[in-house]
TrEMBL record:
HAMAP family: KdpA. Belongs to the KdpA family. The chain crosses the membrane at residues 6-27, 64-89, 140-159, 186-202, 266-287, 294-313, 376-401, 421-442, 491-512, 524-545. This is Potassium-transporting ATPase potassium-binding subunit. GO terms for molecular function: P-type potassium transmembrane transporter activity; potassium ion binding. The system is composed of three essential subunits: KdpA, KdpB and KdpC. InterPro entries: KdpA. Part of the high-affinity ATP-driven potassium transport (or Kdp) system, which catalyzes the hydrolysis of ATP coupled with the electrogenic transport of potassium into the cytoplasm. This subunit binds the extracellular potassium ions and delivers the ions to the membrane domain of KdpB through an intramembrane tunnel. It comes from the Bacteria. One of its GO terms (cellular component) is plasma membrane. It is a multi-pass membrane protein. It is found in: Cell membrane. It holds the Pfam family KdpA.
Amino acid sequence: MVSDMWEVLSVFVVSLLLAYPLGGYLATILQDKPMKGDGLFKWVEKPIYALMGVKHISMNWKQYLWAFLLSNLCLLVVSVVVLMTQAWLPLNPNNAPNMSWHLALHTSISFLTNTDQQHYSGQAQLSYFSQMTVITGLQFLSPLIGLALVVAVLRALFLQPNDDHEHKKNWASIHLGNYWRDMIRVLFRFLLPITFVFSLLLNSQGVPSTLSAGPTVQTVEHDSQHIPLGPVAAMVAIKQLGSNGGGWYGPNSAAPLENPTPFSNWLEMVAILLIPLAVIFMVAKFVQRKKLMWMIFGSMLLMSIISTGLSLWTEQYSLQPNDALLEGKEFRFGAESSALWGALTTQVNNGSVNMMHDSQSPLTGLVEMCNMLINAIWGGIGCGLLQFLIYLFLAVFIAGLMTGRTPEIFGYKIETTEIKLLSVVILLQPIVILLLTAIALANPTLTANSNPAFHAISQVFYEYTSAYANNGSGFAGLGNNTVWWNLSTSIALLAGRYSTLIIPLLIAISLASKQKTAQGKGTLNIESATFAIMLIGIVVILTLLQFMPVLVLGPIADFLSIQV
C-alpha cells in the first residue's frame, strides 16, 4: 500500500514540477512575440506559412471560426479516403484491408475529435501508412485544435483593446489572433519536441520503433505466431501527451509491447497529466491573472484528489470479499496502479487503459463515469479549460440569482444571450447520452451486448458517455463495429466536441462585445476559495441530478448484486 501511495504522489508531483515551466513556455509561444529559437523554428515555419498563404494578421471571430471549421472538414475527408483505400497504399506489410465506410467515418471522427475511440482491433486493421498519417497525424493536430479554441476564448475575454470612443465594441470588432499561426507555432515549438523526447524514453524501455513487418516465431505449442511491430513508440508518446488515448495494439497500454515495464507505465501516467496541467498554468502568464489560474488549478486538483482516492479505495475494497473480481486485472503493475491509471485517464480526456475497465469494480467504473460526465477535472488539452469555463459562467449566474445581483464576470454582465447559449451546452449532454443509451437498450439486437442486466446498462452508458466526453475508453463487451454503433457514437463524438469548443467561444465573444464595467465592493470575487467550493458543488449536483437514475440502474445496482 505504501508503494502505491509513492506512485500516486510521484506521478502528481513530477507532473506538476514539469508542467509549471512548460505552461510559461506555452504562453510565450502563443503570445506570438520574438523569442529564443526563432532562427531555428522560423526556418521550418516560414515555408509552411507561404505554402498555406498564412499572413501575420489577427482574425475576427468569423474568420477564426471559419478557419477552424475548414481545417476540421478537410482533415475528416482526407482521413476517410485514406482509411477506405489503405490496402492500395504503401507501407502495408501486414496486408491490412480497406475499411468499411462506416468504420472509416467513425475512426476519422473519433481521432479528429481527440477521442480515439476504437471500433477496430488495433494494428490488425490498419496499415503502417494509416497509423502514421491518419491516426498519429490526427493525434498531433486534434489537441492543437482544442488549444487554439481555448486561446481564442482567453483573448476575447482578457486581451481586447480598452474601450474608447474610437473603438466601439461589437462582435465584428473582436479579434482572436491567427488560427493557423497558433496551430503551427505550438506544433513545432512545443508538441513535436516533447513527443520526440518521450518517444525516445519509451523506446529505451522496449516499445518498438520500426517499419519492418515483425518476426514470426514458434510458440511452445509448436505453432507459428506473427509478432506485429511498427513505429509504435512515437504513437504511444503522442497518444498520452496529446490527451488522445488510442492504442497501436488492441489491448492498448495493457499490451506488453506498448507498455513493457513499470517505468514505462509510470512515464505514460505522467504524460497523461503533463500538458493539461501546463495549459492551466499557461493562463497566469498569458492573461496576467495568477489568482484566476490558482482558483482553476485548486478546483481541479481538489476534484482530482477526491476522484483518485475513491478509485483506489473502491478497487481495493472490491478485491477483499470477492476474488472473482480479479479477472481482467493487470498483474504486471497491480490492481491499484491500474485504478490510478483509470482515474487519471478519465479525469483527462485521454482514454488509454493499462487494464480492461470492464473488469474493474462497478464502483470504480462509477467513479470513472462521473469523471467523464464532469469532463473538467483536468479535461483534454484546451477542452478541459473550456468545460470549466462553462461551469464557471453557470456558477456566476446562480450566485447572482442567490444574492439578487446582476451576474457579472471579468467586468461583463451575463445576460439573455449568454444564458441561452449556456442552456444549449448544459442540456445537450443529457439529451444525447441518455437518448442514445435508451434506444440501444430498448433494442438489444443493436448492441451485441456480452452481459445481461445491470452491467449491460453500464456498458452501453459508458460507451456513449466516453464518446460525448471525447475520452475514448470503453467497457468492452459490445459488438461495436456495426453501422449502428459507428454512426450513433459518431453523433455523440461530434456533439460533445464541437459544443464544448464553439459555444464557450460564442459566449466569450458576446461578453467581450459589451461595455466593461469597473469592479467594486459588490462585485462577486470568483478568485476565492469560497467561490471555488461553490463551483465544485454546482458541478457535482448538476452531474448527479441529470444522471443519477442511470447510475443507480447501472454501476450501483451492479455492485449491490455482486455483494448479495
